[in-house]
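Worked Example 4.2. Read the sequence first, then its structure tokens.
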Amino acid sequence: MTRWFPAAILLALSGCATVSGEHVLTGTPGPAHDGAVKVVMEGAAEPVGYQEVGIVSATGVSTQATLVAVLGQLQAEAAKLGCDAVIHVRYDRGAESATGTGVAVRLQAEPAP
């Protein structure tokens, strides 16, 4: 009985690997955005015109503590708010978890030349 116990615990814990997200509104949300959501990392040039809607955050645990999983959750949270970009994105990785935060925005169309 003691041989299968550690394996059962590992299997149970691996099922707990998850990525979660949340947001705090700083503006007015719109209908959900169903297109691509652009990601602009902290320190990169930000878009010229945008409307801020909220602060989004995501946390990945265990196998979901990856850049791809965390950024994907940030994009999903922004899309729920009607946003098409997340700017000023910061990603932090620890031993068992990773977090990301950013500002969810609606990009403004650039005027035609």
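Now turn to a second chain, presented in exactly the same format:
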Amino acid sequence: MSIKWLYIAILLILAGSFSSCSEKEKGEQIPFTLIAKGENLDVNAGISKQDVVIRSQEEWDGLITVMDNLFAETEIDFDRYIVIAIIDEVRGSGPWEFAITRITNYSDRTVVSIKVSVPNRIAYQKENQPYHVIKTQKLDNRIEFKYVK
């Protein structure tokens, strides 16, 4: 084996080990509590697709008003908790699977995993807009939203 190929092999091994370091970082699973989940938002209300992190009662009151008070819990202690709301686009048929499945806290960020999948049951021909709203412990990290299938 020539010295050139030896250098290339070493570089490839080093590159592979450095690139996988961040993937190997173990994150802490963060529990959360359901506040609201469904697909029956008023599609005429004009609520756009969004991922929202709510950190104050004023922001929360605004979402409550826009979503027509669909929530099981309306008083949140924002000194201890945050609310995460995901609202999908208006869909022409449903039901769609649209849910926060996991919150993983890493040293530099928190990842909210969201599952979106096409209906696996008999679809109905009615416009709908899926949403999922949860409460979790207060998180100081930057929050990223990751959509998975």
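Notes for the reader: The chain has a mean pLDDT of 81. The longest strand covers residues 97-105.
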